[in-house]
Write a structure and sequence with these properties.
10-stranded mixed beta sheet; Dna Topoisomerase Vi A Subunit, Chain: A, domain 2; 3 domains
Length: 632
């Protein structure tokens, strides 16, 4: 059996392009590589390999996976053969598990009365103790720091003693030195097609006490950190023919993490989850508080792992009742009077922003985002192609302070040094810029980096500006309309998955002028170049239109999918070209109005500012991998 250390080295070293490239002719297409699928007959390539995500995916037959899965499918290898093949290719020495393991010396002393009494208090009978060959020993224990009397939970495989878990008073534990990590009671799965996994030996004994004999326990509990599961590496063959696996690990945060990793490793499609009675976190507590029948019922009524993409109505009851009692959830507002009456924003949606060049769609979007940042504490990731990040920062500062960044007309219009410092530090904490020049303009890479911004900084909003500057790679035979539809769906999936609201800026096609006025007509989302899907697949749509004769900016809200978040209509603003501020034409300046930060309401001046170059997000800042479940 291959050691977990070898498997980890192979996974760190293997390269999907190199492995697949030995069997499939690949050619570059954007950030990915494509070729004819080796799993089904095709004339047009639909087999895609992502060097970034280290996976392959055929959009024809649906097969996908990493380099190991490719070898298993293409070369009819099992898992061990595939890992061995890769280890040989990359010059990694194959270590066999067990070669360095030390078999512990048997501890054969019978359990003393005080321990038997302790088991009886936990609902465990002497018959069960005899069945599991539990013994006792005098052992040096790390908690006591001396030799004390300890229980011996003996780990057998094929009736051979492999390991011992020693347990003394005060939850003082240790495993036998240099022994192999395996599941406790692993022989119980012999000739079974259903398995139950618990988190401790007491829970395993509990299951046996309740007539559930096909139960095993993990040897070292759960942890919040890295889940290596070496015991699963050493016992995976025992689960090969198991059809159904019931996970009854502890109902706490470490247990939840362990459950997720066991499901991922063993296959969620065959895993079920138990539901504990209120006030119980493990099987032994259920036995003591509710009885044996409750334990059996809990196991027999275990629920299938929720399938991705499937929603059961009963899971929505609580949320629907909340809707009925309290109404639909309200959205975040930017504190822009008149505009707030038309639109608010929630996570998991996309807003399209369009307008004739020069109308100020970027400026108004800056007003929205700074309002959401200041009053709702939203954080944003920004991908901007048409101006340097440093210029965008100065414009955001203007929206925050209500003053111009640079001297234009009136010296009193320029922000003070204190206002400059406050606004710059505020932006540092709320806005993160993705450096597309460094990582590329491929939407797949951009969304990957945006997902990392969610994980590291907790961004709530994403600005993609503008659409036409991204690197668009259509598949062979794919029309522009099909490509745009698929791309917008992927952005929507990203928003839902990460709880982000995306603002997508897109330029309209050439707009005709009105014959009577000589002015450009107001564009709609349907005028965006490429496809009507820019209207169909967004939740909200905004068009910013500026009359250069009157300097009035009309903001048209052209689509609001959820009526409780806004309404279709428009609002008008005077645009101050000196300070780049928007003043409602209606004169509506109530208490909810966005208030520029003035000297009187600023926090104390900030002296220690990070260099703005450090606010740029580059490809070296993150070391975590891309979540393979992301939409691209």
């Amino acid at each position: 059996m291959i050691s977990s250390n070898t498997i980890e080295q192979v996974k760190a070293k293997m390269n999907i392009v190199e492995v697949v490239g030995e069997f499939v002719k690949l050619k570059k297409q954007g950030a990915n590589l494509i070729g004819l699928c080796p799993f089904h007959n095709e004339k047009t390539p639909s087999f895609t390999v992502s060097n970034v995500r280290e996976i392959y995916k055929c959009f024809g037959c649906g097969k996908s996976g990493d380099a190991i899965e490719f070898l298993k499918a293409h070369k009819a290898m099992d898992y061990v053969q595939a890992v061995t093949w890769l280890a040989n290719r990359y010059g990694i020495e194959v270590e066999e598990t067990g070669t360095d393991y030390v078999k512990p010396s048997p501890r054969l002393e019978k359990i003393s009365l005080e321990f038997i009494t302790g088991f009886e208090k936990r609902g465990i009978s002497n018959d069960t103790l005899l069945r599991f060959k539990i013994t006792e020993a005098i052992e040096w224990m790390p908690g006591a720091k001396k030799e004390v009397k300890a229980l011996c939970f003996n780990y057998y495989r094929k009736d051979e003693l492999v390991n011992i878990k020693f347990r003394a008073k005060g939850k003082d534990f240790k495993l036998a030195k240099d022994a192999e990590l395996i599941f406790y009671n692993i022989d119980a799965l012999e000739n079974e097609n259903v398995a139950v996994i618990v988190e401790g030996e007491f829970d395993c004994l509990t299951m046996h006490e309740c007539g559930i004999y096909n139960c095993v326990s993990v040897p070292n509990g759960a942890a919040k950190g890295n889940q290596k599961l070496q015991y699963l590496d050493n016992c995976w063959q025992s689960f090969e023919k198991i059809e159904k696996i019931i996970l009854a690990v502890d109902n706490d945060e470490p247990g939840n993490i362990l459950r997720e990793e066991l499901g991922r490793r063993l296959g969620k499609e065959r895993c079920l989850q138990v539901t504990y009675p209120e006030g119980c976190k493990d099987a032994n507590e259920v036995l003591l508080k509710c009885g044996k029948e409750a334990v059996k019922t809990m196991v027999n009524t275990a629920k299938e792992w929720p399938l991705e993409g499937i929603i059961h109505v009963e899971d929505l009851f609580e949320e629907i009742v909340d809707f009925y009692m309290d109404g639909y959830p309200t959205g975040a507002v930017a504190r822009i009077n008149d505009f707030d009456d038309h639109l608010s924003f929630v996570a998991g949606q996309m807003t399209m922003v369009t307008g004739i060049p020069g109308s100020g769609k970027d400026e108004f979007l800056n007003l929205i985002t700074t309002g959401l940042a200041r009053y709702e504490d939203w954080k944003f990731g920004i991908v901007g192609f048409e101006e340097p990040a440093s210029i965008t920062v100065t414009k955001l500062q203007e929206k925050l302070t209500g003053k111009s960044f640079a001297f234009r007309h009136n010296p009193n219009d320029r922000m003070s040094e204190d206002e400059f410092k406050w606004s710059l530090n505020f932006i540092k904490d709320h806005f993160y810029f993705i450096n597309a020049e460094q990582i590329g303009a491929d939407p797949e890479i951009i969304l990957k980096k945006s997902g990392q911004l969610v994980k590291k900084y907790g961004i709530n909003g994403l600005i993609l500006n503008p659409w036409n500057c991204f690197e668009h790679n259509k598949k062979d035979g794919q029309s522009e309309t099909e490509y745009i539809s698929a791309s917008l769906t992927r952005i929507n999936n990203f928003d839902v998955k990460y709880g982000v609201h995306t603002f997508l800026v897109a330029h309209p096609t050439k707009i005709e002028k009105d014959k009577n006025t000589g002015k450009y007509k107001v564009p709609t989302l349907y005028n965006i170049s490429g496809s009507a899907h820019f209207f169909n697949k967004t939740y909200n749509g905004i068009c910013v239109y500026r009359d250069f004769d009157t300097n009035i900016v009309d903001v048209y809200i052209q689509k609001v999918k959820w009526s409780w978040l806004g309404k279709i209509g428009f609002c008008s603003f005077n645009f101050n070209t000196a300070t780049r501020q928007y003043i409602p034409v209606s004169g509506n300046t109530g208490s909810n109005q966005y208030q520029p930060a003035t000297f009187s309401n600023l926090p104390p001046p900030v002296k220690n500012l990070i260099p703005m170059s450090q606010a740029m997000v580059n490809n070296d800042e993150f070391d975590e991998g891309f979540d393979e479940a992301a939409p691209f």
